[in-house]
Every structure is written in structure tokens, then in C-alpha cells.
Write a structure and sequence with these properties.
By secondary structure, the chain is of the alpha/beta class. It is about 25% helix and about 25% strand. Bound molecules: fe (ii) ion (2 copies).
Length: about 270
């Protein structure tokens, strides 16, 4: 803890080799310099831009992530399925069907003398037909002991759905932060009842890209409407996310700071 503050960092989607390079080169020094007590990284695009491999999951933990969240690409890599079952620090969205789906959607994690509940949910607007994320959040939050600090990664396409989730959980979760769009939003704030909120944490990945992919191919694909194979650019990247400062007595957020740390050179 730094200056009687509890500090939490929520990092946006780690994308491909550039994202992994940024996590390795920027995250450890950032966490140390800021005195971060607990770090959650979204890792759904870490391995070649789609999904997460057990090896990249282990590497993200070594970089300082305490928990890795997922999203619509959580099940892309088949060898990740047993990892999701065995590694309690790796999550996938909680509102997948309750039976027959590998892994878990939330967990309670102890660090620095505090207990954090990390809850991973996925939206439904312009996404898959999952169970209701609002009711899933209700069910999880209702069972949490009062000392636990709930942090929600809401992996969703729609800003409308994300703002609705933020206000729905205002006062019940310490933080509701969006992931998935890879475009960092400038709407970080404390909601009226004290929940820290940002519609999208942004991407930890290549800066000159189209949400992570090589711009030349991505533009051609959009102009022609032909599904050219996306390629991964080797561009300079950035670490992006949200830094929370919480009161250690009340375990409530005091302030939020949007984080974007670019690499000096690729
Ligand atoms: Fe996603
Ligand atoms: Fe993503």
C-alpha cells in the first residue's frame, strides 16, 4: 500500500505479441512505481490476437497480473480449456451456461491483507446469446461476504449496456470496467453511489493498428468486404487501463486515473 491507499489496476485486453511485450516491459515497473496492491488483466487476445494459451497465461502472471479475465475469445485455444479448470486465477465470463462450460467466471482472491472478488461478465448486445449478465451479477454479489471488494470486468460491445451495468451495480461493486472494444474511453469516473467506472479500459497492444490488427489488411478488408486474413503488426504498443485508489478502511474507491503508457520504441 502507498500512502494509506489501497491501489488496484485493471488492465485492458492484452493483444498479441506486442501486447505481451508491453505487459513484460511496462507492467512490472508500473505496478512497482504506483504501489499497486492488486492487478487484473484481460487476456482474451493475448495469444496471436485471439484467445489465450496456458504459456501466455503463465507469462502474464509473472508480469504481475493477480487474475486474468476473458471474454468472447476465452475458448479459442483448446489447450486453454483444462487450464481454465485448474487455474483459479484465470477466469472466463460468468454468464455462460452453468453446465458443461470449462472454468469459472468469478473468484475471491486474497492479497495485501484484503480480499477481492473478481467477476467477469459478458454483454449480450451484438454478442453471443449468453445468460443475463445483470442477473448473474446479482447472484454473485448477493453471496459475497461484506469485507470482499468486488471488481467487475464487463466484456461488452455496447456502451449503452456498459453504462447500464455500471449504474445497476453502483454502490454494490467497487469497480465496473468495460473491456472488448479495444478503444479506451475517456469517461472514467466515480458513479453517484461510489462505484469506479470506465466504459472501456482500452487495449494493451499495438498503437498503430485497427483494434490490434495490421492497418493495411484491416482497411482493405473493410473497403472490399472480403475477409482477408488479419495480420499482427509489429508496431510500438501501449499499456492501458484504469488505476483505482481505494480507502483501506471503507474499501470504497476514492479516485480513478486513466492509464496509457506507450513504449518508448518498438
Ligand atoms: Fe472480446
Ligand atoms: Fe478483446
Amino acid at each position: 500500500m502507498k500512502n494509506d491507499e489501497l491501489r488496484v489496476f485493471l488492465g485492458g485486453d492484452v493483444f498479441g505479441p506486442v501486447g505481451m511485450r508491453c505487459a513484460a516491459s511496462l507492467l512490472p515497473s508500473f505496478l512497482a512505481a504506483e504501489g499497486v496492491d492488486f492487478c487484473v488483466m484481460n487476456g482474451e487476445n493475448a495469444s496471436a490476437g485471439i484467445g489465450l494459451s496456458p504459456e501466455d497465461g503463465e507469462a502474464l502472471f509473472r508480469c504481475g497480473a493477480d487474475v486474468i479475465t476473458g471474454g468472447n475469445h476465452s475458448f479459442e485455444k483448446r489447450d486453454f480449456w483444462p487450464y481454465l479448470d485448474s487455474e483459479i486465477r484465470a477466469l472466463r465470463p460468468a454468464n455462460f451456461p452453468s453446465e458443461g462450460v470449462p472454468g469459472r467466471g468469478w473468484g475471491i482472491f486474497e492479497k495485501s491483507g484484503f480480499r477481492f472478488a473478481v467477476i467477469n461478465l459478458q454483454g449480450r448486445e451484438d454478442m453471443g446469446a449468453l445468460d443475463c449478465p445483470f442477473r448473474a451479477a446479482d447472484g454473485i454479489l448477493a453471496g459475497l461476504p461484506p469485507d470482499v471488494i468486488p471488481l467487475v470486468d464487463f466484456h461488452a460491445e455496447s456502451n449503452e449496456e456498459k453504462e447500464a451495468m455500471g449504474l445497476y451495480l453502483d454502490g454494490r461493486a467497487a469497480a465496473v470496467a468495460g473491456t472488448h472494444t479495444h478503444v479506451q474511453t475517456a469517461d472514467e469516473r466515480l458513479l453517484p453511489k461510489g462505484t469506479a467506472y470506465q466504459s472501456d479500459l482500452g487495449m494493451t497492444g499495438p498503437m498503430r493498428s485497427v483494434i490490434g490488427s495490421d492497418p493495411k489488411i484491416a482497411v482493405k478488408r473493410n473497403v472490399t468486404q472480403v475477409l482477408y486474413r488479419m495480420e499482427l503488426p509489429d508496431a510500438a504498443g501501449a499499456l492501458r487501463g484504469l488505476l483505482l485508489s481505494l480507502d483501506p478502511e471503507t474499501r470504497r474507491p476514492r479516485s480513478v486515473t486513466r492509464i496509457e503508457i506507450p513504449e518508448v520504441s518498438p
